[in-house]
Write a structure and sequence with these properties.
The protein is of the alpha/beta class and 209 residues long. The chain has a single domain, classed as NAD(P)-binding Rossmann-like Domain (Rossmann fold, 3-Layer(aba) Sandwich). It is 42% helix and 22% strand. It contains eight helices and ten strands. An eight-stranded mixed beta sheet has the order 3-2-1-4-5-8-9-10, with helices on both faces. Helix 1 packs across helix 2.
Length: 209
């Protein structure tokens, strides 16, 4: 498949790019600036080469990445994701869009969840991308460990969507990544529970090393 990792320069974006690439999927790293996307794609290809895999990742600006891809994953910081969705809604029409977005902020020494009127970030994304098939997943992956191709893990990930066909495609795609097990968590509205528990998990991890 052709998979666009929009805003794919953070840990989750790196991890998803590398792990889908080693499975043979065509991975496109997207960024607001073409030059940054190309630089990141070269960096990821170097990681693949050093690990003994074929370098197949390319970089494009977000619009061209979304237009080229079958599936687009929003690894953009949540504060900027919705304006990006507005700009890309035409090229994303009819396509699968994946949301790992979690609206949260740090207050003092802990993270808190920010409640959105739409119920969740995934539902807000779907309200903008009315002609796309929005699926939410990957919220609770420890992203830094996920970037390490030598790391071994055994993680369950909840998958939510109102489009059953799109959900099945994302579940099947996720299950190709060794160490991940995708579980059907119901409709997109269930994203509210998954997103809101994420800051709690992060706080527990930080406080307990």
């Amino acid at each position: 498949m052709k998979i666009a990792i929009l805003g794919g320069t953070g840990h989750l974006g790196i991890g998803l790019s590398l792990r889908f690439a080693i499975l043979g999927h065509k991975v496109i790293v997207g960024s607001r600036k073409l030059e940054k996307a190309e630089i990141k794609a070269e960096e990821y290809d170097e990681i693949l080469e050093k690990a003994g895999y074929k370098p197949i990742i390319i970089g494009l600006d977000n619009e061209n990445a979304a237009e080229e891809a079958d599936i687009s994953i929003f690894t953009i910081p949540w504060e900027h994701a919705f304006s990006t969705a507005e700009a890309l809604k035409d090229v994303l029409s009819g396509k699968i869009v994946v949301s790992p977005l979690v609206p949260m902020k740090k207050v003092g020494k802990q993270f808190i969840y920010i409640s959105l009127p739409e119920g969740s970030a995934a539902e807000k994304l779907a309200s903008i991308l009315k002609d796309s098939k929005v699926v939410s997943v990957y919220h609770n992956i420890p992203a830094e460990k996920f970037t390490d191709l030598n790391a071994k893990f055994d993680w369950d990930v909840a998958v939510c969507s109102d489009d059953e066909e799109a959900k099945k495609i994302v579940i099947d795609l996720t299950n190709q990544i060794e160490g991940l097990r995708a579980l059907d968590a119901g409709s997109l509205a269930a994203s509210r529970m998954i997103e809101s528990i994420t800051p709690l998990i992060v706080n527990i991890m930080i406080r307990n090393n």
